[in-house]
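Lecture notes, unit on protein representations.

Consider one protein chain, 277 amino acids long.
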Amino acid sequence: MSLQNLAYLLVIAVALYVMLALYAFLMQPRLIYIPDMPGRTLEATPKVIGLDYEDITLRTADNLYLHAWFVPHDQPRATLLFCHGNAGNISHRLDSIRLLHSLGLQVLIFDYRGYGQSEGKPSEIGTYRDVDAAWHFLREARGIPAEEIILFGRSLGAAVAADLASRVRPAAVILESAFTSVPDLAATIYPWLPVRLLSRYRYDNLAKLERIERPLLVVHAREDEIIPFSNGERLFQNAHEPKRFLELHGDHNDAFLTSREAYTHGLKSFLDTYLAQ
């Protein structure tokens, strides 16, 4: 092969690499936020699982309206603020709501901007404003003390819950299937791209842990195919005491069901230990 042909192939390779990097940069919002999978339409309500609920409208600091459900409990031991993952909407979390309710918790679950029936378009700062609106609803509209509210986040929702937990003092914090940060996760998935330079999102859970000083439960499945188990281990290692780690088995989306008995026991033990503190 001539030097000229080699140079030509090198130029093509560099051009393709640059195009791939540009594509990754531009497509980040669609990779991180997936409100349309399986869809924005609400497929069911808590009535389907035999639970009463209230339709709630939350108003954010930037004047968007979000849809939420408040699922009460006759004798609540605490209130759990549920931050769901990056796909679907609140109607796809009925199994979790039922399980949490069985543990004596009343639940406020909300859809981020651009999800379900909520207005707007999702963004990192937007999701932080969204969870703030949910927190203020519980504290102000319902008059629930901070020490009676548990912050719960799964997957992307763990980053949203961690951000709030770094700024308020809830009863406890539960981070399930959480990543250390978006750049860390992207570097694992796309090791051939300069994703740390390209990343438009941070969601830096590892940094937020420095400011979380409430009882913490980190939950992660060893077989998680989307967020490596090592992310959960690293978060736990860097968290302040008091803390617990709950290992599950199963995939990213269904481990809490696959390991239902261990999951339920782990949550109950954590709540029994720390809710009274």
